[in-house]
Design goal:
heterodimer, A: 645 residues, mainly beta, 4 domains, 45 strands, 9% helix, B: 219 residues, seven-stranded antiparallel β-sheet, six-stranded antiparallel β-sheet, 2 helices, 13 strands, 14% helix
Chain lengths: 645, 219
């Protein structure tokens, strides 16, 4: 088959990767006629150009691959260990980095069409039984590469597949290789990909040898461990200079030929994990095969071309993979490259500083597969609050909304972008106009007068976008300078237990947002001493005798003599005030000493009388009135003892 | 008047005599509660030129002008002086008459003032008859007298109100006290003129009055 060394052994289920001794070319197209010059994509049972007939046989896939890179001894070639050279940081770009990239890229996404969950087996003994696995991205096992020292029985320059299976199991048992990991339903996730040093010739289960004409470039196989787990592994001979695989397994550089070949084996291991195990029945093609074409093998086999996978700063060569979906759409385009994610970012056209908003990211791999990678947000606003890196799940179906996860703070036109955190992608971006306004004071604090020991409260308010913060300040020098009051950052300033020493202090609030700052006017705090003790009403113990009114024809005033007599047994301490309540409106007490301001009722004129007034003694006072109407007036009296009438 | 003056307070217990008369003869229905008083003011210190002026002031304690009391002044004698004219500019309220005959003031307004000029002689005397009905409300009616010289300056007195009243009576009882604020003023009971047949008991009443007056007048 045009250079393919493809031996189908249903009892051994070993699929041998094509030994691509042909020059790199486009994936072999489907012949349109038997006389066509081009090689067919798939063959029929007779080896003639035919139709690709991939079926699901009911076997397992790898849900989330756990790639363990194994070095068979310490002498793997530089092609394996640093095949990609050094990156910009001087780090070796070796086969482990390739594994890390390829298992976490759209190369895996495009295998999503080989999910088995809900898919009925269409061939073999399990026909009609649905599978239960979905293929997602995987990881390079931490610690890779693992360098093992083969046992003497498995060492040498010529080893076979049995030696490899034995050595892998021994190394796992000895703890030199990671234990087998499974997915949530007990199927194996781990694959051990073993890289051999120069000078080791490997004979596969079919008896073919590595890197030889008619042999293989690499293969994957499976063994059943003591726990009855189907453990996949890969065998990769040396691709170093003079190995024949360096040039015989592709037409690119040895490194590119190596990664392309390995990607082929990984794709097939994922979609036909238990290929090496015996058939469950006497059928030649049967469970535990997974995805298989009876005439053409596994999903990597019909394809030969390579594609570039840009991952971080590196570009890796991977092989095209057969896609049933693509093949059905176009039989001449059944071999596909991993998609390049294109992101669409949906965001509001505008926002306000500090206000979170939703964004939706839609990812399109371009090949119809579902994006399962990790995205990362960036913004032209260095102070933006962005969502954490997010890994798309299958349930996202390529679209995810980040609720209230983005906050922009910089006023003006900002850009929000999203891209795959690792793989080269077409970033999605959105321009967002961040609108803001400077704080505007809407309420200044008011001057406040309180009694010492009580609580003083000042209030201020301001508008602005984003909502301004507030900081109260105090001035103890009449407003010449102000200083912040620690902790007073609400619009209400409360000062408890005010002391007389705070009298005259000034307070103001400073409102700040990302646009500007605004300061209120200052309010003055007046602190008074304790309230005075009002004069006591002693009218009940004092007799008030009024004379008649005298009238002065010149001054036009009236005079009246009032005699006060203390009828109590105790002296009435001075000062004594005689208040005139309800004095007629047409009259005025001309010689008033003031009006009552403490002892209610307030506002009544009063005259003062020297005290004290001894028990039984009397004192008199002359009242002078004006009454321009000369029509008469009246009042009631109240005798107050004390300094605050 | 710059001369030294004394403050004399005169009390009258005319009610004692009246009570004695009532006890003896029964209360005539026309008899009003009141007092009579001979008042004499030494005006020798005043210029003899015309223009001195006397003021009789009667205020109503109720403030309403209840007209429940009347002051009647008669028997004016000016000690060689002469009566001038009623000062209409300063006369208002319930007043009437003339010092040439009789002056009457009734508290029919809150403020009732009678003013009349005269040329001073050695003294100015008159008989004051004053009813003494009480006002409600605690402020009594008040009758007062003041004199200004031709320049308009009042004869200075010891009146604590500063209004230079010479004589002041608060009608705060049916037997009110009369208070003088200058030794230029004398106030005395008029000589009684009993009706025939009442001499015996009246005489005993007068004896009591004199005794009481000595206790209460001038204290």
């Amino acid at each position: 088959m045009l250079g393919y060394s493809q031996t189908q052994k249903p009892d051994g289920r070993v699929r041998i990767v094509p030994k691509r001794i042909i020059p790199k070319s486009a994936d072999t197209p489907q012949l349109t006629s038997t006389s066509g010059a081009s090689a067919p994509l798939c063959l029929d049972a007779s080896g003639n150009p035919g139709t690709c007939l991939f079926n699901y046989y009911g076997g397992p896939v790898i849900s989330n691959i756990d790639a363990v890179v194994v070095y068979w001894g310490s002498s793997v070639s530089k092609v394996v260990d640093c095949g990609g050279g050094l990156d910009s940081h001087g780090n070796c770009i070796g086969i482990s980095q390739f594994h890390s990239a390829v298992v976490n890229s759209t190369f895996i996404d495009m295998l999503g069409e080989y999910n088995t969950a809900g898919v009925d087996a269409t061939a073999g003994s399990k026909t009609g039984l649905p599978g239960n696995q979905k293929i997602g991205r995987g990881t390079l096992h931490p610690g890779s590469p693992f360098t093992i020292t083969p046992s003497a029985a498995n060492s040498g320059t010529n080893i076979n597949d049995a030696n490899i299976q034995s050595e892998i199991q021994s190394q796992i048992a000895a703890g030199h290789l990671p234990a087998v990991a499974t997915d949530g339903i007990g199927n194996v996730n781990t694959i051990y990909v073993v890289y051999f040093p120069p000078g080791v010739t490997i004979t596969d289960p079919n008896g073919t040898v590595s890197c030889a004409a008619g042999g293989f470039c690499a293969y994957h196989n499976t063994y059943l461990n003591s726990s009855n787990l189907a453990v996949p592994y890969g065998v990769v001979p040396d691709f170093g200079p003079g190995s024949a695989c360096d040039t015989g397994c592709g037409s690119d550089t040895p490194w590119q030929n190596l990664t392309s070949t390995v990607s082929h084996e990984l794709a097939e291991s994922i979609t036909d994990t238990a290929v090496g195990l015996p058939s469950a029945s006497t059928l030649a093609f049967d469970y535990p095969l997974t995805w298989y074409d009876v005439n053409n093998g596994e999903i990597g086999d019909p394809c030969s071309n390579t594609a570039s996978l840009q991952f971080g700063a590196n570009t890796f060569a991977v092989q095209h993979i057969f896609s049933i979906k693509a093949y059905k759409a176009n039989p001449n385009a059944g071999c596909v490259s991993p998609g390049i994610p294109t992101f669409t970012l949906t965001a509001p056209a505008s926002s306000t500083p500090g206000s979170p908003f939703d964004v939706t990211v839609t990812a399109n791999n371009g090949d119809g597969s579902t994006y399962l990678g990790t995205v990362q947000f960036t913004s032209s606003d260095g102070s933006a609050k962005l969502p954490a890196d997010y890994t798309f799940a299958a349930t996202d179906a390529g679209a995810h909304t980040f609720i209230g996860a983005v906050t922009l703070n910089r006023i003006g036109s900002d850009t929000l972008s999203v891209a795959d955190v690792n793989q080269s992608s077409n970033a999605g971006s959105a321009a967002i106009n961040v609108l803001g306004s400077a704080p505007l004071v809407t309420a200044n604090p008011s001057d406040t007068t309180v009694i010492a020991g009580s609580t003083a409260t000042f209030r201020a308010a301001a508008t602005g976008t984003p909502t301004p913060t507030v900081q109260w300040q105090v001035s103890t020098n009449g407003g010449m300078s102000f200083s912040d009051i620690a902790g007073q950052t609400s619009t209400t300033l409360t000062i408890s237990s005010v002391v007389l020493g705070q009298n005259g202090q000034k307070f103001r609030a400073v409102f700040t947002n990302s646009v500007a700052t605004a300061t209120t006017t200052a309010a003055t705090l007046t602190v008074n001493g304790p309230p005075p003790t009002c004069a006591t009403d002693v009218s009940g113990t004092v007799t008030v005798k009024r004379s008649g009114f005298s009238y002065n024809i010149v001054s036009k005033r009236y005079a009246q003599t009032i005699t006060l007599k203390n009828n109590s047994g105790s002296p009435i301490a001075g000062p004594i005030s005689l208040a005139l309540d309800a004095l007629s409106a047409n009259a005025r007490l001309f010689n008033s000493a003031g009006t009552t301001a403490c002892a209610a009722p307030l506002g009544s004129p009063y005259v003062s009388i020297a005290g004290p007034l001894a028990p039984g003694s009397s004192a008199f006072v002359v009242l002078q009135f004006t009454d321009p109407t000369r029509t008469g007036f009246s009042y009631s009296t109240r005798v107050l003892a004390g300094a605050q009438p | 008047m710059k001369g030294k003056m004394t403050n004399m307070k005169i009390s009258f217990l005319l009610i004692v005599a009246v009570a004695a008369l009532l006890f003896t003869f029964g209360a005539p229905t026309s008899f009003a509660t009141g007092i009579s008083l001979n008042v004499s003011i030494n005006t020798s210190g005043l210029p003899t030129t015309p223009g001195s002026e006397i003021f009789f002031i009667f205020t109503d304690g109720s403030g309403t002008g209840d007209a429940n009391n009347t002051a009647t002044l008669s028997a004016f004698a000016l000690g060689g002086g002469t009566v001038g004219t009623v000062d209409l500019a300063n006369t208002f309220g319930g007043t009437s008459g003339d010092m040439a005959s009789t002056v009457s003031l009734t508290d029919s307004s809150f403020t009732n003032v009678f003013a009349e000029t005269f040329s001073a002689g050695s003294s100015l005397s008159f008989l004051l008859n004053l009813t003494t009905n009480l006002d409600a409300g605690g402020t009594p009616d008040q009758f007062s007298v003041a004199i200004a010289d031709p320049s308009g300056a009042f004869i200075s007195t010891l009146d604590p109100t500063g209004f230079n009243n010479l004589l002041l009576i608060n009608l705060d009882s049916v037997t009110p006290s009369a208070t003088t604020y200058s030794n230029l003023v004398t106030a005395s009971l008029p000589a009684p003129v009993p009706e025939p047949g009442t001499v015996l008991l009246l005489g005993s009443g007068l004896l009591a009055l004199v005794g009481a007056g000595r206790r209460r007048i001038f204290h």
